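Let us work through a complete example step by step.
Step 1: write down the sequence.
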Amino acid sequence: MKTKLLILFLTIFSVFGIAQENMYKYSNEIQSTPEKIEKVESLIQQTFGEPSSPGIWTSKSADYGLIIRTKGNTFTIRAWQISSNSDIKSKIESLMAQVESQL
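Step 2: predict the structure and record it as tokens.
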């Protein structure tokens, strides 16, 4: 009985681990001039709406996590997929293509 429970336990956690490995994760930090960082903020607002706090955007979605911070001459982004229903990868790729062309 203990062996069967152990096998079941390990199977569940291995499946969960495999599912987590396939989830999208992105992290990047870019240094530029404060003027260019300010221009990038409008691109972020077009994609993710108004900031949660000045210079900080966070996710309110249950499907993905998001933290974007613009401060001084630094642009920092971290995004991760929580559910398979998320379209965060395409949003981040599109945003970063625009951001990198501006910075």
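Step 3: interpret the result. The chain is about 50% helix and 25% strand.
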